[in-house]
Amino acid sequence: MTLQRRLRGSSLISQTEKCFIAAQLIALVGEMHRSGICHINLMPDNIYLSHGWKVRLRQFASDLSQTEPFRISLVNGVQDMYNMFQKSYIAPEQLIFHLSESTQERTTFRQWQNVDQFGLGCLLVELFNEGRHLFTFQSLSDYVDYS
Question: Where is the Protein kinase domain (predicted)?
Answer without folding.
Answer: 1-147
